[in-house]
Design goal:
By secondary structure, the protein is an alpha+beta fold. About 15% of the residues lie in helices and about 45% in strands. It is built from two helices and six strands. A hairpin with a 4-residue loop joins strand 1 and strand 2.
């Protein structure tokens, strides 16, 4: 019997207690509320979706998105939302926000 979390290997939107919202591929989920994401990006703001549930299913029209971090360990995860193929395609195309 495997103890692997069902989100491992999936492209997800992640909401945390104190670190904001991120998206990327889930590599590992631990039993303390931490995860490891590959190709992780932080989502600061967005338009075109009402909630993170909609972000994960329909994507966004625009937003402030940080550059990609190849590997990111995030603590305090409170929500993991697997993305639809359409939302993933939209999120992956978002340009990094300019300062």
């Amino acid at each position: 019997m495997s103890n692997k979390h069902p989100a491992v290997g999936q492209y997800c939107v992640i909401r945390t207690i104190n670190a904001g919202v991120h998206y990327g591929t889930v590599e590992h989920v631990d039993n303390t509320g931490g995860i490891t994401l590959s190709a992780s990006r932080r989502l600061w703001s967005w338009s075109g979706a009402f909630s993170l549930s909609e972000v994960s299913q329909i994507g966004i029209k625009s937003g402030k998105v940080a550059c990609e971090v190849p590997l990111h360990y995030i603590l305090g995860v409170i929500e993991l939302l697997p993305c639809s193929a359409a939302a993933r395609a939209i999120l992956e195309k978002q340009p990094a926000a300019k300062t």
